[in-house]
């Protein structure tokens, strides 16, 4: 049996995915989580074969979860199921060791196939998305990305500095670097552009 953990913040989608996978003879959903931190706790407790996760979730994103799995050397393979078909997201996912990347509008049977492929050591990524992922490189580093994401949530430089454990001057430097790299006028424009490209 392939043991699967599902991480999805929308209850109806989470329930539908669990029911869908429950019909497969060789797949068992051993746990579900409604946010990133909950998924991380369940990952450590259950040690599933495959984590099926959305990208956008409260707490930790699916990409941050994948990075933690990679950093901690967990044997779990990660498959992202998302509405975001942006090349920037896929590129960051692949860099974080993600083995599969499916869009939510893919046929339902594709999910079970992808889980089997990923579990078997293969990859399950839409070929057109994969080609686009390398067309435009992400110019931001992790700190710039984190500062920009918090700025986009409406936090001031002082609040961002507290959240990131940095000085306000360092935060301002990260934000102006990001603004400069993206060629825009301010942090809000930088946030919007980075979101649109899939870099946040």
TrEMBL record:
Domain of life according to the entry: Bacteria
Keyword Magnesium: no
Response regulatory domain sequence ranges: 3-119
Pfam family of the protein (one): Response_reg
Alphabetical list of PROSITE patterns matching this protein: HTH_LUXR_2, RESPONSE_REGULATORY
Sample GO molecular function, one term: DNA binding
UniProt xrefs under CDD domains: LuxR_C_like, REC_DesR-like
Domain HTH luxR-type: start-end pairs: 133-198
InterPro entries: CheY-like_superfamily (IPR011006), Sig_transdc_resp-reg_C-effctor (IPR016032), Sig_transdc_resp-reg_receiver (IPR001789), Tscrpt_reg_LuxR_C (IPR000792), WalR-like (IPR039420), WH-like_DNA-bd_sf (IPR036388)
GO biological process: phosphorelay signal transduction system; regulation of DNA-templated transcription
UniProt keyword annotation of Iron present: no
Residue numbers of 4-aspartylphosphate PTMs: 54
Keywords: DNA-binding, Phosphoprotein
PANTHER family per the UniProt record, alphabetical: TRANSCRIPTIONAL REGULATORY PROTEIN DESR (PTHR43214:SF42), TWO-COMPONENT RESPONSE REGULATOR (PTHR43214)
Full protein name: DNA-binding response regulator
Originating organism: Pseudoxanthomonas taiwanensis
């Amino acid at each position: 049996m392939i043991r699967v953990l599902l991480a999805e913040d929308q209850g109806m989608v989470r329930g539908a995915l669990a029911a869908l996978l429950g019909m497969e003879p060789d797949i068992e959903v051993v746990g579900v989580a409604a946010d990133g931190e909950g998924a991380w706790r369940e990952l450590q407790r259950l040690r599933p074969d495959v984590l099926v996760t959305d990208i956008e979730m409260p707490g930790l994103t699916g990409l941050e979860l994948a990075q933690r799995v990679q950093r901690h050397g967990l044997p779990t393979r990660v498959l992202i199921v998302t509405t975001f078909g942006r090349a920037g997201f896929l590129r960051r996912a692949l860099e974080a060791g993600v083995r599969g990347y499916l869009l939510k509008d893919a046929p339902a049977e594709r999910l079970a196939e992808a889980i089997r492929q990923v579990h078997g050591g293969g990859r399950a990524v839409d070929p057109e998305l994969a080609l686009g992922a390398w067309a435009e490189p992400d110019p931001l580093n992790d700190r710039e990305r984190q500062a920009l994401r918090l700025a986009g949530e409406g936090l001031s430089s002082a609040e961002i500095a507290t959240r990131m454990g940095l000085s306000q001057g360092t935060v301002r430097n990260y934000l102006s670097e990001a603004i400069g790299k993206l060629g825009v006028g301010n942090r809000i424009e930088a946030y919007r552009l980075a979101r649109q490209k899939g870099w946040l």
